[in-house]
Amino acid sequence: MAQIRLESLTKHFGEVRAVQDLSLIAEHGSFIALLGPSGCGKTTTMNMIAGLEKPTSGEIYFDDEAISRLEPGQRNVGFVFQNYAIFTHMSVYDNLAFGLRVRKPRPAREEVDREVRKVAETVGLAQALDRRAARLSVNDLQKVALGRSMIVRPAIFLLDEPFSNLDAAFRAYMRAELKRIQHEIGQTMVYVTHDQVEAMGMADRIAVMSLGVLQQYGTPDELYNRPANRFVANFIGSVLMNFLPCAYTKDGDRALVTPTEGESGAIDVSDRRAAIEGREDAASSLTLSIRPERVRIVPPDSGEATLRAKVALVEPLGSRDIIHLRFGEHDLRAVGAPGRRPHIGDNLGLVFDPAAVHVFDDATGLALR
Amino acid sequence: MAAVEETRTTFVAPPASRTPRWLKPTGRILTIVLIGALFAFPLYWVVTMSFKPLPEWNPPGKVYWWPDNPTLENYEKILGISSGEQSVFATGRSRSAVEFLVNSVVAAIGGTILALIVGIFTAYGIARFRAGGRMLPFQILQLRMFPPIAIIIPLLFFYVEIGLWNKEYFGWFNLGLIVLYGAVTFPFVVWLMRSFFQEVPREISEAAIVDGCTQWGAFFKAVLPQVKGGLAATALFVFILNWSDFLIAKVMTQDNNSTAPVYLQSLQGGASGNEYGLQAALACILIIPPAVFGLLIQRYLVRGLTFGAIKR
Amino acid sequence: MASIRLDKITKTFGPVTALKSVSLHVNDGEFFAILGPPGAGKTTTLRTIVGLETPDEGDVYLDEERVTDVWPGDRDVALVFQNLALYPDKTVYNNLAFPLRQRKTPKPEIERRVAETARILHIEHLLKRKPAKLSGGERQRVALGRALVRDPRAYLLDEPISALDALLRLEMRTELKHLQRDLKRTLVYVTHDQVEAMSMADRIAVLREGEIQQVAVPEDVYHRPANRFVATVIGSPPMNFLPATASWSDGSLRVDHVAFSLSARAPEVRAKLGEGACWVGIRPEDIHIEADGGEGVPASVYVTEPLGGETVVDLQLADRVVKALAPATLQLRSDQPVRAQLDPHRLHIFTEAGETVLSAAGADVFQLTVL
Fold it and tell me: What is the ipTM metric for this complex?
């Protein structure tokens, strides 16, 4: 168990700036996720924590001990990779026991046996110990990979997209299992993924990265409800976020934003007045944004409606519908219940509650609040 | 899936070396220069020799590292521009190799084209349609496992029997040699082109078929353009093999129907002694076509030769 | 424009049977999805329609005309390959023009149609580039373009967007659907992603190990799955299955689970279900969690997985972990005791082998009693 602290961590590969000035703390016993699209620097970051890459500058601390010059073997970290390193010619039991048996001095047979059975129980392989790894399903192989890393009790557990080869249903199952395992063993885990559902579902805190730069480091709730910038807003969530260019006006004490194109009501953003007026370049344009799940659908003649838009397409997902709407030149999305499915061409009233609306500065992309 | 993949292993830093830091690059460069010189020396020798007049060829007790009196005489003689009256051993007979060079060019290019045509289609059949099953490519390569000398004598009888031995049509078209060169080098074409074709996704040819091509059309319009590099590299390789052949031409042809390498050898010894200068001049001329060919297709060559080596 | 019909197609590759007597009818102008896990035979089905595979048995019909032995290029259907299969040595323009040139289209016509296609797909600025210089999304558009430019009778798409990153996938999904709406062409879409199938398709065929499991509109696949496999493949997180025992008295069915029991009047399914072991199925969104006492099946929180707008709550319910969906506002911690309310209008009963026996699908079919 350990706390991980990254301080101004930077890695360049020639001209390519893979990781830029990354600082963050993973508290001891926490589950953090490095999230971002491919090429964002998440794997490079993990490789530096593991010791497979040396940082260009900056330092990594495990419990206040600087470790960036240590070899991987000296760091006491456990890995689970996308391509699980399994010895297919061995039984599940021997695969699990491997990490213990290569230790010097070699632990007693009874001790190995005890540990193997305990880990097998945790990852759900207790019934499969005698099977040869070559005969396992992809799903079980991944469990073996997980168990092999767990058994050596690393201070820090690193997982690089371990579920990306699994089918959807089993991935959903493993997500819950891994989170539960982490809850029970209380080890610090760093999980690298490009899948926001995995990161949101499992991690205590998520570091969202793009082009080597940390965009936001926060809890799933913070990322979802208080995204730091447009990139994070767009990356988190399973339905595309709505964005509309807007104009800022003052009405007495009230600060208002109004979509610049099309007919619509104003949204009261008085609580963000200071941030909006104090933005870097006071002349820069603004964009308002709201999650489709937070858009309320009302009849088009309702006085409550912020704006009215025409239904362009309905995507049924079973439990809910994604309704695509056309507002002037813009596409908007809202989430509806399948029971009240509108028809294509219908006009709907949409309510943008001020609390659900984000205002972004177009010049910097930052959220103003 | 079930591969034993220890993707990342723990590594240990090597112990620090005691050699002074500056010595490392200097020593390395020196070694490279030495080895380079060793390999370049024969080439240097043959090029300088080709410009030496007869007295400097091989005088007893003296070594000419550089032609003291450089001359083009050797080239003139070998290209039939002059007959070389001024030579000490002059016999007056022509030393021109032009006819042999023509024979060489025709046979090497003809053999290369033949090998490419047959080999490319065979390779595509194997790569794309698994023609002949899993063993065929090995069996074809096995054709090359016999030393050619082992089968050249029966072939000689065979050629004599069907009238192809030492037969030149139109005075320059040696069908027998072309067919033999094609047959001998075609396994290499199959082996090389097969791996180039395997690199082209099957879907590319299928896309062309769905887009309206015939199987042949898909091959020529969609697949072949993508292995241009490999094709160029293969053609060069095969051409070099054919161009430098000695054995087959020596056995299968005689006199004026021979190729340049055979003629080169015939300048060794004989009535006028070892004609080193002429040999060197002819050797230098023989170097030119593959070198020029190589330069022309250099652009494709690097990609062609590394193609397949790298998994992208 | 064309309807597509597969009649009892069987296809084997050596010892592997890829398709077992597959019959399908895709209507003219329909957006038809073929959904299944890897290896289910989806791609083979598509390749059989195009003509890249010849079935061992059965026939392919386009507009009721038998085309089983017709050469792919003469079937006039367009295929977008999973790996796109762009011609790497040709520019985008030449990639798009290629199918037209094969059909001996006059040059001005080629120019006009390539320009038109490029405009629809927003790739006008890329026409002079080669595929290697394009981003993943751009290549995707070019591959689509090569199909669109020909104006074929039907479009066949093999997981066309699965290689794109998540955001782009969301965008392309709507774009494709709009496109098909506008073109009004038959489109067969192969995918392993149920969200893509559900959101885009007019009808979905679910395929498993070369056999059709169900062909239906998205709502029916979702609310009336033909079997456990379909129920698992459709919906995310997948449906939960609870082991139970069925018993009958006259036409009344009683299904007992450790923690609750169901009763229903359904004499017509008696023969199918029989007595003994069976499964109760319920989707995560149909389990309502009561954090402070109240009614429902007693359970405890295993873990919670926040997704932002909502939270997946894994519940330890008797000896199983089931997934439920709860609003993000519900605060829960691991091992907290809660009550799970199962919506009786959304329950399904499956035989032990996994065949669907009863799906409530919103109707008053079951009475639920918590034990």
Answer: 0.86
